[in-house]
Amino acid sequence: MGAPAGAEAVITAEGVAMRFGARTVFRDVSFSVRRGEVFVILGGSGCGKSTLLKLLIGLHPPSAGRIAVLGAEWGDLGGAARRALLRRIGVMWQSGALLGSLTLAENVMLPIEAHTTLPEEARRLIALSKLGLVGLGDAADRLPAEISGGMMKRAGIARAMALDPEILFLDEPSAGLDPITSAGLDALILSLARQTGTTFVVVTHELQSILAIGDRCIMLDKEAQGLIAEGDPKALRESATHPVVRAFFRREAPAEAGAAGG
Amino acid sequence: MSAAPFRVETTEGKPRLSFAGPLRTEQAAALWQAAHRARPRGDALLLDAGEVTELDSAGAALLVSLAGDGVEWIEPRAEAARAALARFRQGLGAPRPPAPRNGFRPVSAVGGAVLGTLAAWREKLAFLGETTLAGLRLIPRPWALRWAEVQRHLDEAGTRAVPLCVLLGTLIGVILAFQSSIPMRRFGAEIFIPQLVGISLTRELGPLLGAVILAGRTGSAYAAELGTMRVNEEVDALRIMGLDPVAWLVLPRIVAAMLVMPVIALVMSFTGLIGMAIVMATLGFPPPAVTAQLVQWMDLEDLAGGLGKAAAFGLAIGYIGCRAGLSAGNGPRAVGDAATAAVVGGIIALVVLDGIFAVLFFRLGW
Ligand SMILES: Nc1ncnc2c1ncn2[C@@H]1O[C@H](COP(=O)(O)OP(=O)(O)O)[C@@H](O)[C@H]1O
Ligand SMILES: [Mg+2]
């Protein structure tokens, strides 16, 4: 299952660090994401998962280190090249980040309008299909203010998928969703990854969904200010030695895990 | 792009529309109009996508939009393309938004508008009642008001508004004195300028301009603050915790606006008089002459009337700002709308109130 081990790397990060003022969020983070795999970023809240995601999509430059996405470094790209690269990725924000003055369908149509010359009819058809895939087909003409938080998340995913991106970045997609919708989302992610070769970079806490969809994962830690684990989630569950990693995968409190391990 | 990306032909007496090669966003965007024009009318059509090698959402959208209901398909033979098409259809197969009910129905439209207006008025009246009751309940036990909150708003609405009031007040005093000095000089009546400017400032312009400042600075801030709290469900949370949002949020703000407004009016009038005195000095009237004039022609009633009016203005602006905030809709745009409504509503209320006071004072012979 998953991507072939020899597949090309679509994202490489080498020695990446991020500081806000004097505060270091993480440093010396290195990993690579292969084409077609579902790559999961784990870690407690506030450890810098969203920050890492923002670095990967070129929103901020890292304080140190290099990040290459689809063969290019964000810092080297001029306006047109940057736009071309942005068209090949999709992002779902942690809060959904829908524009409040537009309906859900219009929100999904927005990136299509920005990057293609497709006529309105085509844009709406695509938007309806994407919204249907995340279970929001009948809410297409509602405004974000009229729907629940979980629905906003799903609409955010639909918007991220609008341009059939090569890499989809999802920041906590299943937080706030009911288990059934969440499982449906996992199935959708798997089918997109396996059938279209879409690469996924997913920040999530849901152990079930990590084990179900994750080909590989990295785990960030606030105390360590960097990576504390990297590898196949199933293997980590069996054989992780770091107490925090063990605790996470076995759903134990870290203190107990430490006691059991020592 | 490759030549002839789609073909129209007739096989076995049936028109056939076939696509070949990659059908991705670029091709779909380029072909969309042409393909729709070339599509034979009716459902007797064979849509042949068998030779399509690559398909994305835009390509699938083109194929789906070309097919009506009962059209016969040949699915792409390439597996990835077939899967993309299947997924696109799956998305569209999910429940769709209900079609908008169009068609103008005059009776129900008029009825709906009337009912909507009535409901809005009912709500306004209910809020007025709630606020009045909460305010009356406060009279026997004034310590129940959150005075710390009142203090914060006094600071924000009052202390921080002083520089602007000083600036505007002085300017108005200077302008009034200077402008009136031009016609007055013709009659050698410059000595009456202090009386003219003093009365217009204390009775009218001080309270009115001060209230406009309050509406712009504070009324809008009340609306934005309460509107954001409403949008964040903080107001509902208060209610659930058994706290009355009116007593908790609205009264301290209104009381602060009422207390601060006379002070603002006083600052405006006083600095206006100073501005006027400066102009008078340049015209050759020393300050003692100006004060003598003011003392002779003005009495405390002018000032008291102006300050009473100012307090009423403060009440109206605070009330309207809070109401606009608490009745805000959902989402960030609602907060902006509420702030606008507070300023516009506040200024309209000022004009109306000032008119009422003018009639009242005239009847009372003040
Ligand atoms: N723009 C910013 N300025 C300062 N600190 C920030 C900024 N963005 C994030 N941080 C800090 O970085 C840390 C990681 O945040 P974040 O990446 O959002 O965590 P999470 O792992 O929960 O997504 C937090 O402690 C946060 O306070
Ligand atoms: Mg986060």
In short:
Chain A is an alpha/beta fold. Chain A is built from 10 helices and 10 strands. The longest helix of chain B has 39 residues.
Question: Mind explaining what this structure looks like?
Answer:
Chain A contains ten helices and ten strands. Chain A has helices at residues 49-56, 79-87, 104-115, 120-133, 149-160, 179-196, 207-213, 233-239, 243-249, 254-261; strands spanning 9-20, 23-34, 38-42, 64-69, 72-73, 89-92, 167-171, 199-203, 216-221, 226-231. The complex binds adenosine-5'-diphosphate (ADP) and magnesium ion. Magnesium ion binds next to helix 1 of chain A.
Secondary-structure blueprint:
The complex is a heterodimer of chains A (262) and B (366).
Chain A: E1 9-20, E2 23-34, E3 38-42, H1 49-56, E4 64-69, E5 72-73, H2 79-87, E6 89-92, H3 104-115, H4 120-133, H5 149-160, E7 167-171, H6 179-196, E8 199-203, H7 207-213, E9 216-221, E10 226-231, H8 233-239, H9 243-249, H10 254-261
Parallel strand pairs in A: 3-8, 3-9, 6-7, 7-8
Antiparallel strand pairs in A: 1-2, 1-4, 4-5, 9-10
Chain B: E1 6-11, E2 14-23, H1 25-38, E3 46-55, H2 57-66, E4 72-74, H3 79-93, H4 106-138, H5 147-157, H6 162-186, H7 193-231, H8 234-240, H9 245-282, H10 287-297, H11 300-326, H12 332-364
Helix pairs in contact in B: 1-2, 2-3, 4-9, 5-9, 6-7, 6-9, 7-9, 7-11, 7-12, 9-11, 11-12
The complex binds adenosine-5'-diphosphate and magnesium ion (MG).
Oligomer: heterodimer
What would CATH call the homologous superfamily of the largest domain in chain A?
A: P-loop containing nucleotide triphosphate hydrolases
Distinct small molecules bound, one entry per kind: adenosine-5'-diphosphate, magnesium ion
Structural class of chain B: alpha/beta
Largest interface: A-B, 36 and 35 residues
The largest β sheet of chain A comes out as: 6 strands, mixed
Total number of helices of chain A: 10
Task: Give start-end ranges of low-pLDDT stretches of chain A.
Answer: 256-262
Question: Which strand order do you get reading across the main beta sheet of chain B?
Answer: 1-2-3-4
Mean pLDDT of chain A: 85
The CATH class assignment of the largest domain in chain A is Alpha Beta
Spell out the helices and strands of chain A N to C. EEEHEEHEHHHEHEHEEHHH
The low-confidence runs of chain B, each spanning 5 or more residues with pLDDT under 50, are: none
Q: What fraction strand of chain A?
A: 15-25%
- Major β-sheet strand ordering of chain A: 6-7-8-3-9-10
CATH topology of the largest domain in chain A: Rossmann fold
